[in-house]
Each structure stands twice: as structure tokens, then as C-alpha cells.
Design brief:
The protein has one domain. It is 67% helix and 0% strand. The protein is mainly α and 101 residues long. The protein contains 6 helices and no strands. The N and C termini lie far apart (59 Å). It is globular and about 55 Å long. The model has no long low-confidence stretch (mean pLDDT 76).
Length: 101
Amino acid sequence: MGVEDEEAQRDRGFRARGRRILGRIVNGPRLPKDDWERRSLLHALARLGLGEQVNRALSDPEPVKDRPPVECPFFLRGNIDVYLQFQHLYLAALPAYADGP
């Protein structure tokens, strides 16, 4: 087996493990009500990463985006990460919305 074959095999294995992890997040237990705000973005990111339930991934965290909990200081950073990675899935009107209503 050549070096390129080994590298391609490692890459395929890495991607397969990543999909399994994301699948476990998406298909795991329901989010606890007392921690839904923090975990909803993680679940949304996993769904977007898999390309599954995209509409749900984009809509589930909506209520929290307007009023992020104080105890979730990294929520806005997570939103930025999601947008930068998956902005092609967002509505074209989203940049105008960011400037305010």
C-alpha cells in the first residue's frame, strides 16, 4: 500500500469516526430542560455537520439567540462558529437582520 493510500484510508477513518460522534449527539437522549439552552447549539452544530435535519438545526436555537442565558458565556461564540461554517445554509436575508430590524 502506498503512502497516499494509507493517508486516504486514515482520512476516511477519521471522517467516519467524526460522523459517528455527531450521530450520537444528534440521536442521543433528549436534551434536559434545565440545560436546553446550552446544549441546543451543540445539537444544531452536529445536525449541520451531518447535513441532517438542517431546518431543525437552524430553528431550534432561535429562542435562545435573542436572550442567551448569562451562565452561557460562549453561546455567542458558538453562534459565530456555526454561521462561519454553515453560512451557505442560512437565509440570504440574514446579514440584513444582523444590522437590526
